[in-house]
TrEMBL record:
Domain Alanine racemase C-terminal: from-to ranges: 252-389
Keyword presence, Isomerase: yes
EC number(s) from the headed UniProt entry: 5.1.1.1
Protein name as catalogued: Alanine racemase
Pathway assigned to this chain's UniProt record: Amino-acid biosynthesis; D-alanine biosynthesis; D-alanine from L-alanine: step 1/1
Gene Ontology terms describing biological process: D-alanine biosynthetic process; peptidoglycan biosynthetic process
GO MF terms, alphabetically ordered: alanine racemase activity; pyridoxal phosphate binding
SMART domains per UniProt: Ala_racemase_C
Family (UniProt): Belongs to the alanine racemase family.
Cofactor: pyridoxal 5'-phosphate
Protein's job: Catalyzes the interconversion of L-alanine and D-alanine. May also act on other amino acids.
Length: 390
């Protein structure tokens, strides 16, 4: 038996990741304006839609014009297929033990699969035989990422194997860029050169390849010449462009909590494990019942602000001391009117008055913690209930 966590009733916990599907729809639409008509948009909704809820993200992206959905796991692909969404699905990461069980069902559901090695081709071929249908295969070419994908000198061999296999239909050639967010990095052009020569070699073996795709968010935003047949943006859909963008994108997730207590402390009060912070004056501290087990990055301790909504208005206040597993402390200031129960916005769109201070973003958290917004968003843990705005 598998037991889902948490066992807590979410109605009794104040922490929420508020998801705005309209933001994902608008972001998808905005990205779509950058594309030529013949280029399709694959919404990357892996990792539970970058923490936003996979089905929520998928539906919102389709409404914004996405016609493809991309996920890592076959299990995610199956869940998408079962939801009956109007989009072609691609999944790209599996290993033999689970692939043997899940791939026949995935193929029966009409999902496209990526192949990145001879062993993966054998798994897909066997699954297609079992499902009694041809597998639509996207051949992944490793042009420099060094992860999934066949190396350039293996392309002809795997091409020939696919040509000889009646259960394989070569649908696409694709690759993943290592450095598209560094716009001046020559690595991108080097990868494209390798990719193009691999595609030519593959076409020699199997004939024309219907589809090519390689652009993630960064390349979608900065390299129209790399859009090809499909672009595969992820993070930009959720409102965090990895490069400066000319289009308007807005965050789709807001993480909120509520003050558990407020207390007055003297100057010199130490706060939290290791006493890394002491108050520089008498002040009011607020305790917020959300911590690293909810997804806050401990590395951001004492380096980030949050927004507190009090009766007298919104205020950005510093988080002080180490972030604990279940709680953080914020310095509300000596004159604060904050009370237990007041709303706290950790990041996202606080939806305040136009001239009120805005909440920090996942980008602020990422910078404070020395990571990237991708990790901040996908770290929001299973014990934080997602509330989807309608
Ligand atoms: C294969 C693949 N394509 C596209 C993406 C989307 O990348 P980004 O979120 O940077 O747009 C990812 C995410 O890492 C990926 O793994």
């Amino acid at each position: 038996m598998t037991i889902p966590i948490p066992a807590e009733d979410p109605r009794h916990v104040p922490n929420r990741a508020v998801i705005d599907p309209a933001a994902i729809t608008q972001n998808t639409r905005a990205l779509g304006t950058l594309l030529e008509e013949q280029t399709a948009l694959m919404a990357v909704v892996k990792a539970d839609g970058y923490g936003h809820g996979m089905l929520t993200a998928a539906r919102a992206a389709i409404e914004g014009g996405a016609t493809w959905l991309g996920v890592a796991h076959p299990a995610s692909a199956l869940a998408l297929a079962r939801a009956g969404l109007d989009a072609q699905i691609l999944c790209w990461l599996y290993e033999p033990h689970t692939a043997k069980i899940v791939l026949p069902e995935v193929l029966s559901a009409g999902v496209d699969v990526a192949v990145g090695s001879m062993d993966m081709l054998a798994l897909v071929s066997a699954a297609a035989r079992e499902a009694d249908r041809r597998a639509r295969v996207h051949l992944k070419i490793d042009t420099g990422m060094g992860r999934n994908g066949v190396l350039p000198w293996q392309v002809r061999e795997i091409g020939a194997a696919m040509r000889e296999d009646d259960f394989i239909q070569v649908t696409a050639a694709w690759t993943h860029l290592t450095s598209a967010d560094e716009v001046d990095d020559p690595a991108t052009d080097q990868q494209v050169e390798i990719f193009d020569s691999c595609v030519r070699a593959l076409e020699d073996e199997v004939g024309p390849i219907p589809l090519q795709h390689l652009a993630n968010s960064a390349a979608t935003l900065t390299r129209p010449d790399l859009h090809r047949d499909i672009v595969r943006p992820g993070i930009a859909l959720y409102g965090y462009p990895p490069v400066p963008a000319d289009i308007a994108l807005r965050p789709a997730m807001t993480l909120t909590s509520s003050l558990a207590l407020v207390k007055e402390v003297p100057e010199g009060q130490s706060i939290g494990y290791g006493r890394i912070h002491r108050t520089s004056r008498a002040t009011r501290l607020g305790l917020v019942p959300i911590g690293y087990a909810d997804g806050l990055h401990r590395a951001a301790s004492d380096r980030i602000e949050v927004l507190v909504r009090t009766e007298s208005g919104d205020r950005r206040v510093p988080q002080v001391g180490r972030i604990s597993m279940d709680q953080i402390v914020v310095d509300l200031g000596p004159d604060s009117t904050a009370r237990p129960g007041d709303k706290v916005v950790l990041f996202g769109d606080a939806g305040g008055e136009p001239d009120a201070p805005s909440a920090p973003t996942a980008e602020h958290w990422a910078r404070a913690a020395g990571t990237i917004p991708y990790e901040v968003l996908t770290s929001v843990s299973g014990r934080v209930t997602r509330r989807v705005l309608s």
